[in-house]
Amino acid sequence: MFGIGKLIETIVVIAMVWFGFKYIQRIGEMNDRRRQRAGQGQRASAATPPGIEDMICCRECGTWQSSRDAKACGRRGCPY
Predict the structure, then answer these.
(1) Rounded to whole angstroms, how far apart are CA atoms 14 and 25?
(2) Where in the chain are the domains?
(3) Beta bridge pairs of residue 64
(4) How far apart, in whole angstroms, are the C-alpha atoms of residue 52 and residue 31?
(5) Going by C-beta distance under 8 Å and a sequence separation of 6 or more, which residues neighbour residue 74?
(6) CA within 20 to 30 Å of 49's CA: 21, 43, 55, 72, which one?
(7) Whole-angstrom distance, CA of residue 74 vs CA of residue 62
(8) pLDDT tens track of the chain, all 80 residues?
(9) Residue 54 phi/psi, 5° resolution?
(10) pTM score
């Protein structure tokens, strides 16, 4: 028949599979947290990288200018 040894062996195998899945899930959660923390640090440093400026386009003439020192293009409807 089935026997007590086989029953204990089945319980041990089920427990190993159960705890294995829990362990893998915990590792995944830790990796997700690590990526979030790394992403926060990168976002803070990537917000203002040195040497890069935002550009804006003039609605009248279509030229692109630095947003810090935009000057009028000389046309009548120029917003700068």
Answers:
(1) 17
(2) 4-46+53-66
(3) 57
(4) 32
(5) none
(6) 72
(7) 12
(8) 568 999 999 999 999 999 999 999 999 999 888 888 877 655 555 555 667 777 888 877 788 887 777 777 777 777 76
(9) -80, 140
(10) 0.42
Q: How far apart are CA 65 and CA 79, in angstroms?
A: 12
What gap in Å lies between CA 19 and CA 32, rounded to an integer? 20
| Angstrom distance (rounded) from CA 28 to CA 11 | 26
User: What's the longest Cα–Cα distance across the chain?
Assistant: 98
Between the alpha carbon of residue 76 and those of residues 56, 61, 63, 65, 66, the distances in Å are 18, 10, 15, 18, 20
For the stretch 14-37, pLDDT in tens is 999 999 999 999 999 998 888 888
**CA separation for the pair 24, 2 (Å, rounded):** 32
In the block, residue with structure tokens 């203002």 = 48
